[in-house]
Each structure stands twice: as structure tokens, then as C-alpha cells.
Amino acid sequence: MQPHQLNPQIADDFESVNRFILDHLHSGVPLVEKIGHYIVESGGKRIRPILVLLAARSCNYQGNQHISLAAVIEFIHTATLLHDDVVDTSDLRRGKATANAKWGNAPSVLVGDFLYSRAFQMMVELNSMPIMSVISNATNVIAEGEVLQLLNCKNPDVDEASYMKVILGKTAMLFEAATQTGAQIADASPEQEEALRLYGRHLGIAFQLIDDVLDYQSSAEEMGKNVGDDLAEGKPTLPLIHAMKHGSDEQRKMIRQAIRKGGLEDLEPIRQAVIETGAIDYTFEQARDQVNSALAQLELLPQSPYRDVLRQLAELAVDRRS
């Protein structure tokens, strides 16, 4: 079940967001529209804009600006995907060829820039300085997280704390911005805004932790990307960090070497090492802890169907295959 199918009212909002996104992809440059439509329409759960809708509605928002705010968040997310695929030299996302694989790196980067700037045009129209402050800070932190991840690539000495700092910036920050600005647009109380901000942060961390597990558990068809992509790029994710810490000398040496050189030559024995050392279970436990922290924040919100969906989304974060 897709997130927007959990509540019929959210389904209506979700369709409005999709229409709004497509209406704002217009450009006088045909290639911009072509790549923009390709990446936006290539699937995905749209979980970040859905979080905006749910956060606003859970605080009893009755207007329609949450639709454009959700589109802003999705445009920013899509821009980061275009840039990430270039940096990571990825050729598959959501089961389709990446934009850079189809059109090249330069057009992908530039269309990513277009989506960023269009997001800020749309955000200005919301006429909310608090929302602008949250989103502008989030985009800055996301960029720093991506650079930090780049610096950590092919470094087997990255520890768990450094890894968590990366995913807090590159993934959790936009989840956090989605739920916090959803609360802001609804004029929620300071306590409710903070609760939704933290809910988004913990959910985003859990989401990324499960992503990192799926790199060693799922098939390419389930994930929509190539299995072992993180290992191929030399990314020291939590399953690898835990396996190096608790594995045998032989396993530790093999994983360190694989991170240093990148590539998939040792994918199967590394997968086995990750399982044998309990790294999969450990990462799932960390994700569950984050989900429990997210769920605790919902107690500060009034009871509503929207709060119930936020609870269901958190549960789904640790029970998915893609």
C-alpha cells in the first residue's frame, strides 16, 4: 500500500499536489521540462510531501497552502536526486534509467538547479518567513550532508557517530523540514511544531537505516536501484560499520578493502559477513528505536485520522522492501 492510500482525504490532497507539481514544471527550455517530467513522474512514494499534508491536517489546517508547500518539498527532494545520481554515477533509480544515464551529467545538474530555484519561487509565494527560514536552512544542511558523505566515501575508519551525522543531514533533514513546515502553515502551537519536527527527524533517520539494510537484502526489482550500490561506491554504511567492529579479522579486512576500492567483487561474502555479525539485526534495532522516538512525539498531537496515518507511516518505515 502506498502512503497516500492510508487515508481517503489525504488521497485527494495527494492528487492536488501532483497536479500542482506538473503545473509548475513549465519552462521555456524544452529539455528542462523533458527531464523535469521524467524524474518527477518516474514513481516514488512521495513520502515527504505526504508528511507535509499529514502534519498540517493533524494540526487542523483548513486552507490550501499545504498543497503548494508539499510541492516545494518534493521539488527540493527531486533536485537532490538529480544531483546525487550524478555524484554517485548511478544508472538506475526507481527501476528506471537515471536522468544522467539518459541525458548526461551536465543537463541533470542544471535541471536540478532549475528545480531548486523553482522551489524557492513557489516558497516565496507562501509569504511565510518562518517557513522560508526552515527550508533554506534545510537545503544548506542537506548540501553539507552530501559533501560529508562524499568525504567519507572509501574511508573504512568512519565510525557510527560520523555515519549518523551524514544521514541526519542528507536524509532526515528534509523529513524534518516537511513535518515542521506543515505544522507552521497550520499555526500549530510551539509544542506541536516541535513534536512534528522531531517526528520527522526520527522517521527520516529510520527510513535511511532501512535503506542501508535493503542494499544487502533486497533485489534490484524490489529496490528500484542496483543492489550493492552503496558498497560499489565505497560508502561505509551502518551494516558495514557494525560488521567490521564485530566480525573476524578476515571479515574486517575484506570489508575494509572493499570500502577502500569500491566495486562489487566481494558482494556475496560481504553480505554473508553482514548477516553473520548481526549487522542486519542491529541496524533494524536502531531503526526501530528511531521509530519509537517518532511515535512518542505523536502523543502531543490531538487525536485524528491524520495522526493515525502518521503512526502507520512510522510503522511502515521499518517494514518495507523498497
UniProtKB/TrEMBL annotation:
Organism superkingdom: Bacteria
Record key words, sorted: Magnesium, Metal-binding, Transferase
Catalytic class of the enzyme: transferase
GO MF entry, a single one: metal ion binding
Keyword Magnesium: yes
GO biological process terms on file: isoprenoid biosynthetic process
CDD domains: Trans_IPPS_HT
Enzyme nomenclature, EC number: 2.5.1.90
Entry cofactors: Mg(2+)
Pfam family, one: polyprenyl_synt
Catalytic activity: 5 isopentenyl diphosphate + (2E,6E)-farnesyl diphosphate = all-trans-octaprenyl diphosphate + 5 diphosphate
Classification via NCBIfam families: PRK10888.1
Biological role: Supplies octaprenyl diphosphate, the precursor for the side chain of the isoprenoid quinones ubiquinone and menaquinone.
Family assignment from sequence similarity: Belongs to the FPP/GGPP synthase family.
Protein name: Octaprenyl diphosphate synthase
Organism field: Motiliproteus coralliicola
